[in-house]
Amino acid sequence: MATIMTNPDLADRTYITPITPELVDQVLEKEWPDALFPTMGGQTAINLAVALAESSALEKYGEEFIGTKLEAFKKAENREIFKQAMNNIGI
Asked: Residues of the signal sequence (predicted)?
């Protein structure tokens, strides 16, 4: 667990529950955060971020990612897309 995310001086609320797209959708509806920073939660956060973006939950609440865009996640997570990107830049 990342201590910065659960520090009461930094976090308005801390949710102790399994993380699913459905649950995060409910939290977004209740909390209306300014933005989401999915690169601070490892692979679980990345998978969740992609699922939320593809389900249109982010659009529904007017949310956006900061730090990394959906296209970058998809490029990094898909071996073929990543390979093509590396070939395109000569690596």
From this structure: none
